[in-house]
Amino acid sequence: MSAYEKKKILITVKTYPLPSKKTIEASCTAGITEDGKWIRLFPLPFRHLESSKQFKKYQWIEASVTKAKDPRPESYKIDIDSISLLGKPMPTYNNWLYRKEIILPLESRSLCDLQNTQGETDITLSIFKPRCINELIIEPEEVPHWTEDELATLNQQSMFDKKYVVPLEKIPFKFKYRFLCGDSNCSGHILSVTDWEVGQAYRKFRKLYRQGWEYQFRKKFGYDMIYNFDTHFYVGTTRAHKHTWIIIGIFYPHKEVA
Description:
Blueprint: E1 5-14, E2 18-20, E3 24-26, E4 29-33, E5 38-42, E6 60-67, E7 75-78, E8 84-86, H1 93-103, H2 111-121, E9 125-128, E10 132-140, H3 148-154, H4 157-160, E11 173-180, E12 189-192, H5 196-209, H6 213-228, E13 232-237, E14 245-251
Parallel strand pairs: 5-7
Antiparallel strand pairs: 1-4, 1-6, 2-3, 4-5, 6-7, 6-8, 9-13, 10-11, 11-12, 13-14
Helix pairs in contact: 5-6
């Protein structure tokens, strides 16, 4: 096993948690290192971390990491006990200027380009700007609740946690975007969205607006993302399907006024 090394990382992505037999639940977490490289961190049972180690998006952390057995080159195993928060989350001043300065230099030309060159570049984590977002798709999950095996996994928390953690709710819908990427020959893509912010927005809007949640949800993640924000997608692949891309986060400063 490779030795652990300290890295400073700007957290840019957290996906909605899923049950994990190793860590009760886990969230795909990704960011950018101090030297400007993508990094994927696991295992990260974020909600089960001590409060002093619970970082926010666009917050710098320092942690000990080592290259994971996962074949994706950006994937690293993190020592969760080593996590240290470095200051407050990066502010949104000047339409996310400070965030843009770190993130946009890593922007890929298009999703088509990522797919077509993956055999040469081996990239499995990136960000790009869609040319046109056509539709936010909302589909009900075939199984809207956790299975018995998943519940058994999640119920392990009482044996391991020093603090009480609210049981993880399964989001009973799938969220996807249909869009054209920046490639001139793009025929269109439909990608699933696993961003934690999207899942939490569903939970918040359902609580606030009950049956009217979908209107509010579509306004923020449909209308606003299409017309009001300069929307970029953070994308990554899964370990099981290295060539299948999903949207793991959304970067959305306001559109610049000409």
